[in-house]
Amino acid sequence: MTTTEEIKKGLAGVVVDYTAISKVNPDTNSLLYRGYPVQDLAATKSFEEVALLLWSGELPSESELTEFCAYERANRSLDPRVKAAIDLLPTDCHPMDVGRTAVSVLGANNPLAEDSSPEAELRKAKELFAAFPAVVAYDQRRRRGLEPIEPREDLDYSQNFLWMTFGEEAAPEVVDAFRVSMVLYAEHSFNASTFTARVITSTLSDLHSAVTGAIGALKGPLHGGANEAVMHTFDEIGIDKDESREAAAARAKAWMEQALAEKKKVMGFGHRVYKNGDSRVPTMKAALDRMIEHYGRAEMLGLYDGLEAAMDEAKGIKPNLDYPAGPTYHLMGFDTEMFTPLFIASRIVGWTSHIMEQRAANSLIRPLSAYNGPEQREL
Ligand SMILES: CC(=O)SCCNC(=O)CCNC(=O)[C@H](O)C(C)(C)COP(=O)(O)OP(=O)(O)OC[C@H]1O[C@@H](n2cnc3c(N)ncnc32)[C@H](O)[C@@H]1OP(=O)(O)O
Ligand SMILES: O=C([O-])CC(=O)C(=O)O
């Protein structure tokens, strides 16, 4: 019989399975992908290399990387069936709904959809990795009333993503900050969306169903939707490009004090596992700093610092990865609602790695509940 003392609301602190994909260590404030510190990978590796590492467990050889990059470049075009499905959706629906629909359509049209052999699963993971940027770019452009832009095979993943979205070659600093965000967002053990993907996989359902479900879990502002929510906070405080860093910081501090006095949750702060700072924030904050420098937007740093300092002073709660990622994507020119689909593009790697791991040593995920409704009664 389950007792109330055994209930772990939100599964907090519950270890449900092994994983060899990543190690989140809140004590040392570190994150390893297959044993490698994420900040080292972000400093030196392409997103394509990191994807192969997460999927296979080892960094690729030069020839493996070349082969994968050629495959990725050849599979970037927007599938016409996906385009047709997106065109049926209103331009004011949430872009996460578009992403979720696109993955569902890709699954329904994939001849390997019901093949769950390791080879087929890896192939489908690579296909999704290559195909998803065109979905985001197409959706961003259609919302602005712009024509889609064809992918370019002479560009790497990050260069091409920005090319298809904005129709111009991004500056190397911008491409690099984008690459860093993709590496950092790629994987984070049993977070809510990954756990969703594993639950779906545990019923022996297919990979695209698991990714579609994971997208639904990522959308919420307590998880991936926080990167969008951070920008709404900045907008609510008010962004004034001509304001000094100090003045912006003072306004942000006052906003945070008021929000906390009203017992509001401020998105982009706090974490279920890290209680003393998110391991990825220093690397992402450094990328944001480079974007602030590149675009000459010191007032954004003021807003960032003001909120962070006031939250730390009042509650000791630290920013999570979504906090620096949101303003970074804003400076690059993405609409705020497109931020969480960017997270999808990256996390596809983590989700599909976990789907393969779950399938390889499966057990149906089905916890118990403690019933607290009425006792049995007569009709
Ligand atoms: C990439 C990612 O998905 S990272 C996570 C992104 N999500 C967010 O940024 C959403 C904002 N943050 C939060 O809601 C939480 O910190 C979570 C959901 C991420 C983790 O929460 P939990 O581990 O369940 O802790 P919980 O929500 O119970 O918070 C503990 C205490 O800190 C407070 N707290 C935690 N985060 C915040 C926050 N962002 N703003 C204000 N207070 C907060 C809670 O109100 C609570 O206070 P109380 O004990 O006085 O009631
Ligand atoms: O681990 C979590 O709970 C959320 C998170 O940071 C992520 O998914 O990247």
Automatic annotation (TrEMBL):
GO biological process assignments: carbohydrate metabolic process; tricarboxylic acid cycle
Pfam families referenced in this protein's UniProt entry, alphabetically: Citrate_synt
A GO CC annotation given for this chain: cytosol
InterPro entries tied to this protein: 2-MeCitrate/Citrate_synth_II, Citrate_synth-like_lrg_a-sub, Citrate_synth-like_sm_a-sub, Citrate_synthase, Citrate_synthase_AS, Citrate_synthase_bac-typ, Citrate_synthase_sf
Residues annotated as the enzyme's active site: H271, D322
MF term (GO), any: citrate synthase activity
Keyword vocabulary terms for this entry: Transferase, Tricarboxylic acid cycle
Tagged with keyword RNA-binding: no
This protein's pathway: Carbohydrate metabolism; tricarboxylic acid cycle
The keyword Transferase belongs to this UniProt entry's keyword annotation: yes
NCBIfam families assigned to the protein according to its UniProt record, in alphabetical order: cit_synth_II, PRK14033.1
Family: Belongs to the citrate synthase family.
PANTHER family on file: CITRATE SYNTHASE (PTHR11739), CITRATE SYNTHASE, PEROXISOMAL (PTHR11739:SF4)
Name of this chain's protein: Citrate synthase
Annotated source species: Glutamicibacter creatinolyticus
Organism phylogeny: Bacteria, Bacillati, Actinomycetota, Actinomycetes, Micrococcales
